[in-house]
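seq:
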Amino acid sequence: MLNAILNAENLAQKGKLEESQAAFMEILAAEPSNVRSLLGLGIVCFKQGDNDGAEAQFKKILESKSNHLEALKNLCMVYATKKDKVLALETLERLLGIRKNDPEFLAFGARIYHAFEEQIKAKESIEKALELSSTNYIKQAEFNDIKAHLNGLPLPSKIKKKLNLTVCCVPGMDSFIHDSLKRLSLYLNVTTSISLKAEDHIKNLLNAQIVWLEWGNQLTQFILTQTNILSGKKVIVRIHSYELYDGLAEKINYDLAGDIVFVSPYMRDLFIQKNFPTAKNCRLNVIHNGIDLSRFSYLPRSQEKNNIAFLAYISYKKDPMVMMQAFSYLAKDNPDLKLHVAGMYQDSRYALAMPHFAKKAGLNERIVFYGHVNNPDEWFKDKDYILCSSLNESQGLGILEAMSRGLKPLVYNFPGAEDIYLPGYLWTTFDQLKELYDNPPDPQEVSAFVSKYYSKEREIGSWLKLLLDNQQVDEIFDFAPEKPAS
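struct:
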């Protein structure tokens, strides 16, 4: 009997499906409950496109062996091929319930979840598979390819030779880079040069093929004078916002830079208006900072709308007294409305002025001050709105994180806001703010908006198109338009 089974399996491996099918059926005629032959016949039927026949064989196995892993896995594949989401995910949950810590099955589950657009579960499954296979280099490479595929990114295994990327930054200003560099390290040999000492950066740049200068500040000004060090290297400067407003960007000679990256179209346009002659040969790119949707995912909440959040480093740029006045305006007609203010004071005047306003306006019991919040994701859970009163934002990362959680945006229409947010998320006057508060966008649509335009994967894809433009990348990018549709 074993020889007959091996012969049938061998025929299937050679692609002789009809002969294999006949061989398995002959075995099953003599021994109808032979599990190995039922499985083999089911797989042959599946390869022939006979999904009903395949389903029947796998179900026969599960009638006697309800936890048979291969039967469950293959049955799940049959349902996925039939596009039967309910039965496919039900079968997958049975499979993962048996082998919840098996990286292979978790990776399989990630593909099935992705096929049915259950992206959060797909990402959770592949991340767990990667975590559990951390000591297995071969599996890590395979699972990283799966993760990249799920996110619409190039497969890391297709990068034939990693280029050396060095990122230069001064201490304390590196908060925007680490999460992105961790992901980019699958495609490049990434090193960071974070120091106040010029000689440290010079030494760290010697082996770099690509140089990323974070912020258009004095460090970038110095490095872009080092002709001998930068010769033959691809040089990228990333400018956020303060460098343009404070005049630092004007002190830089961009002759040695090939690309300048901005985090919003408005910042790019401000740069263009200044007409820097040394930047005339640079490519100007917009790459938005991305939101890690595995941390800031949509959270359903009640229909109540009584909690407004304000989260920021509190300084004049955030116009916090306008924020307090805005809340006061909304609070007049809403006795249950509360304002939750989180963030460190960067100007001690506000530490006095804001509680003083709350007291004098009779809002002491309705405004809560938290100071610094270590876990914004957790803090957002019981909030309904995110309020922004900023004079200017290059992008508003904290606002987008809150929106991805499902908080409804009340965003002041600062210069450039319309390049980042939909018009229906913005207010200019207090009357418009009240109208937006009374008629907010749907929380799920708000979260989906962030996922579509501002995911971390989208950011990484944009960086890879810039960083790997001198290499063949086999996967094709297919991202949504840069600017949200009005």
